[in-house]
């Protein structure tokens, strides 16, 4: 796996100097978690990274001065997406868990949010049948007429970790070029 430190530091507008972060679920340098880690590091945060997906409950004691937890979801949690199959109900349960964790951890100053990323070519997406069709549908239907990239998702994660969103918890932020707002499109 490539090293975070080898990336050129361009500096982020949002600074996380003096803060510590934990990024879980990094599959490879193309994953959305990797992009989030790069942006955290560029913003000055000290990071621990892992490929494990267990760890929110274990991270709670480390956030004794408050913090921010985020997870990645997808539009399939809200609407039926062909070929997404069982992942739709799984992501719906994940988004419900975000709300319950926000309720549970809020009194400790810990915010919990989700990013609903648009279709992005990642290792996880490679398991979705007809994924190219989904990308094409996104470019046709999304108001911005394009897909999103991992960097855009990483910057949204950075924003939610920053003090600029200190009053936001229990939310799902869509980073999908507006795809989620469109209804059925008929030809």
- Would you count the extended β strands for me? 5
Continuous helix count: 5
Mean pLDDT: 84
Order of helices and strands: EHEHEHEHHE
User: How much is the radius of gyration in Å?
Assistant: 16 Å
Would you mind describing this structure in some detail?
The protein is of the alpha/beta class and about 190 residues long. It has a single domain, classed as Rossmann fold. Helix content is about 30%, strand content about 15%. The strands form 2 sheets. The chain has a 3-stranded parallel sheet, with helices on both faces. The protein has a two-stranded parallel sheet with strand order 1-2. Helix 1 packs across helix 5. The chain is globular, with a radius of gyration of 16 Å.
Describe, in short, the structure shown.
The chain has 187 residues and is an alpha/beta fold. It is built from five helices and five strands, in the order E-H-E-H-E-H-E-H-H-E. It is globular and about 45 Å long.
